[in-house]
Structures are given as C-alpha cells and as structure tokens.
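Trying the structure run again after the queue cleared.
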Amino acid sequence: MSAPFREYDPDQALLFPPNLRDWLPTGHLVYFVLDLVQSLDLGAIYAHYDFVEVKDEQGQVIGRRAKTNRGQPAYDPRMMTALLIYAYVTGTPSSRQIEKKCQEDVAFRVLSANQKPDHDTIAEFRRVHLEALSGLFMQVLRLCQKAGLVKLGHVALDGTKVKANASKHKAMSYERMLETEKRLEEEVAKLLAKAQTVDAAEDEQYGKDRRGDELPAELARRESRLAKIREAKAALEQEAKERAARDAEAARAKIEERRRKEEETGKKIGGRPPEVPDPEKAVPEPKAQRNFTDPESRIMKDGATKGFEQAYNAQAAVDGEAQVIVASAVTQQTNDKQQLVPMLKKIEENVGRLPEKASADAGYFSEANVTDPKLQGIDLHVPPDRQKHGQADEEVNEPAPHDATIIDQMRHKLKTAEGRAVYKTRKQIVEPVFGQIKEARRFRRFSFRGLKKVAAEWNLICLTHNLLKLFRSGWAALPT
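Done. Tokens:
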C-alpha cells in the first residue's frame, strides 16, 4: 500500500532552474523592476565611476569594469539600483535587511542575479548616489504620463509628518540652552580652578612631567557639551535674525502699499501701520528648539497620533486619474500654508502644465495663496475653515454676492453642488497615498539626516509609489 503523503526529504539535493526567471511566477513585480531599470537612464550614476580596461591572456581588450578603491570590480549599478528600488517598494529600506534578503529571499536573489552585496556596500551605494536615485523620479513620472495615468483634471495636495532620523529627546529649547550654558560655564570654571590646584600639588609631589588624566577628561566632556550648546544657540539666533529680516521686508512692502492707496484715494487708512522689526535685535522665542542629532529637523505635531515628533513635513501632489504623485517636496515648516503655490508650480515644471482643478485642506488656505497670479487658470478648492468630521454645510445654488470677500467667495464655492463634489474627492485621491506609503510599505522614518538628503529620499519613496501604479496598470516596460 502506497504512503498517503507526498514525498518529503529536506536533505534532498536539488538544482535550481538554470534561468533565474524560472524561480518566480510570470508577472512577478521583480521582473517588472528589472525591465524598468533597463529602460531608465542611469548616466548620472555611471558618471561617478572610473573605468579600466579588461584584457584577456593575449592582451586583447575584452571589456571595461568599474574601478573601486579596493581594486575589485564594483557591483553593476543596474543591479544595485534595482535592488534599492525593489527594497523601498516592498518596505525593506534597511541595508542590513537587504543583505539578509539577498541570502534568504528568492525574489531578492533573482533580482541580484544571486549576488550578495553586504550592507556596507548597499549603504554606501545609496549614500553616494542618493541624488541621482532621486532624479529617477522624473523618468518614472514621464513613463506614467506615457501610460496614460496622469490627466491633471484634478490634483489633490496634502502633507504628512515623517519622523526624522533623530530623537526628539536630543532637542533643546533656546530658554534651556541659556540656562545650561550658564551652568556649564560655571562648572567649567570650577573644574579649571580645581585642575590648576591639582596640577600645582602634583608638580610639587611628582615633578612637572606628571599629569593626571581623570580631571581633564571630565573637563573635556563639559567643554564639548558647552561648545555644542553654543553652536546650537548661535544657529537659533541666526535663524531669528533671518526671520526678522524677512518680516521687515514684508512690513515695508505693506507700508508702501498702504502709502500708495492713501495717495490714490486721498484718504487716511485707519489702524496702525505695520511695525518693521530690527533683525539685529531679534532673539529666538524661548521655546524655539534645535536638535543636536539632525539640526534641520523640527518638533512637529503628527495629525494622526496627535503626538509630537522630531520630524519633517513631506508634501505630495497626487493626480486624480490613478493616484500618481506628480510633485513632491519636504519642508521644515510645521504647517502647509506656504506650500500651495510652490507645489502647484512644481507640477507645471514636472508635467508641463498646471492642473485644471486643485484641492487642499484648510491648512493650505490664505488669501494670498488663492489669489496668486501664478495659479491663474486653476480652479482652486481650498476651504478657509477646517470642517469637523461628518459635518457638512448647507448646499447653495445662487451665485456669491458681488461684494463678497475672498474668504466668503471660497466658502460659497465649496457649498455649491459642484464645489462639494470636487472637494469630497480630495481625501479619496491623496490620503490613501500616504496610507500606502506608511502602512503598506512601512515608511515612517527617514534613513538620512538633513533637509537635502531627506528630500531626495522622499523623492525615491514617491518614485516607488508611482512604479507600483505602473506595474498594476499592466503597462510593460521595454528595455532600451
């Protein structure tokens, strides 16, 4: 009688198929990534390498290879690029996890052609080529356009807080800096006095060549902390002066506009004229903070958790046709008010024209934003007021009064049937994108530090989001 089970022998020797593409089912995402990378221009990455000729035993040139510091051939940039893109797509950006996957995960082994770069090599490739990898965002976006996934009928904007690669506990307020600086100055002074006393006593006891090591080490720790605090304090003071200079320029412009209107109308405008701050007298707010690990990150309130995190504000403009990200940015500003105009202009730079309609939540509204001449021709849907969940204003059918203010015109527009319908789709367009990035692909913290680098990494994240849209649309990448 035959056994009732299938044969099972974990120690049985097997040979993998000779073609790596037989290791995974047809249509797997890995094959799409491999074909897509073949179609991308990686010239910016290849330009980084010095190439040397490879010769056969007879001295004939048979090819070239990239030269590394160790004299060994570098891993092919196509493989390393595909590896990083696939890692971000699948929520595995850690270089150590990628190294492990190249040994244990069949998909990663197929993608790397069974090569196993170590985590230092992966991390170094990403660090060196981060800007070039970020630049691939535009190439993938153009492929999305070619595939018909970008229409620019309705684009929705939003921002999300992404944690910085730094702890909020490594931040200190300006007020505390002043207190700590004074305390450390006193401690350093006492230690210096004590050191002089100890030196004199040891010179008398042991001779002038004798030196104690414990006290100078203790002194060095305090001095280094004092130096870091003074550096951070100076940076906050410089930021305060720069902010005051911008405010002064804006105030002078308002005063000039006020004077011009008074000359035109012949009437004195009521109220106090704007005050022009003196940048040289500007000081930081007592609660202004600076992080010692990533000074360019900021303490921000996470809208989802309502908690405060050391973070950056990541922006995305998403096209309504297939949820393709058509513009991305990262800012240090905790709110979105100053992002409406630059984000919409970036869409024009990336795609070639402005969208027909654009929507954003109340955090983007200001009269200056919605009346900016750069956005002329866009049907904007940006409410001046935050709406409570489940609350809807009564629908209106009549046109807005001719003397309505900019704020009232926008409020009226969003109460019409058409305005309500457009704004209702905003959440459906942009918010799922952040959900897919943060939940499905588990990207909640940047790997790099500094605004320029995190902006490049955010571009890489947006690139991989768009890549998935291409993959799921059934579009076929054709190698060049």
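The chain has 14 helices and ten strands. Worth checking whether this holds up in the mutant runs.
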